[in-house]
## 1
Amino acid sequence: MTVSLSTYYRITRMSALYDLLVTAPFATPWTFALVYPLLSHANVALGGAAPGQAQPGAGALRRRRALRVRALDGVGAARSARTSPACGWCALPD
């Protein structure tokens, strides 16, 4: 399938315009501040939690994260016996 040069340029221009329209609201803190209320309203309309409220099931996520941290803490404690005091994650040679 071949595309003429003018069609290629038109596709490229439309792609660039789309990129600008989609990313412009997030380009600066000021433009994001203007768009954030609209995004929050859309989130609530689609069944999400309102800003400042916990998502349903957030407690389960916190419990899973706590379990992961505890599991990693055991690994870190075993590793700390062989680490340099200057750099907690830099292992000393055996």
Note: The chain has a mean pLDDT of 77.
## 2
Amino acid sequence: MSIFDKLQKYIGSSVGSKRFMSVDVADINAAEAEFGFKLPSSLKRFYQSVGYGWFGVEDRSDIRNLFVHPLDMVDLYNGTSEFSPPEEFLPGDVPFFDCGSFRFLVFRPSSSNSEFVYRHIGESEPIANDIEDFVEKLLLNPHFYEE
């Protein structure tokens, strides 16, 4: 059983702190074409299995926990999204997860391991080995990345 299977019950839900919508494969392909590189395989599997959407918490209004839609990732990366942080992302950092309050988690496609998940503030230590590891950590603590 995949860790993503634990999120299946939230797909298509329109209410609640955890809710996801499906992502069309054409949108994933279009995002990759815009970027000029492939998304990490674990992120692609997440989009194909679960989709995009919120992994929120009830007791923290400052936590957004949004898995960003692939086409919105392109806008964030290019700095054309209304949700872009005031400071630009570091070169090579691709945002895929909006924590809230202009905080994002990123992957680095040109790094030695493009599956690693990092905070967008330039830290060199990954907070997760891939999206499966990231989701497992979120299931245990929806704001573990603050620690």
Note: The two ends are 28 Å apart (CA to CA).
## 3
Amino acid sequence: MYYDIEKAGRRIHELRTKMGISQERLACEIHIHKKTISKAERGVSSLSIDHLVDIADYFDVTLDYLVLGRKQEIGGEINAIFENLECSGEKRDQILQLIRGMVSLVEGA
């Protein structure tokens, strides 16, 4: 598996359109020029690793997914944990609350 800029560009386009935001808004959010987003989505040019990380963070996906197409979404991992623990209802809500708290701590650090 390797970094295919056309496929990565399509993934960026899909994520952006799924959220209903414009290229201009995405560019503004991650502090790059709109044309840079346009070229990346069309597979005309690649993005720097810094911009790829910013885009992955913005869309809450892994860099592996954005660059290589590997689906490793955190939501799926959390669901797998719940299945292994065989918990639901109140226990599940408590665990989710703990996870959200940990995420807030990490983001605030």
Note: The CA atoms of residues 2 and 106 lie 30 Å apart.
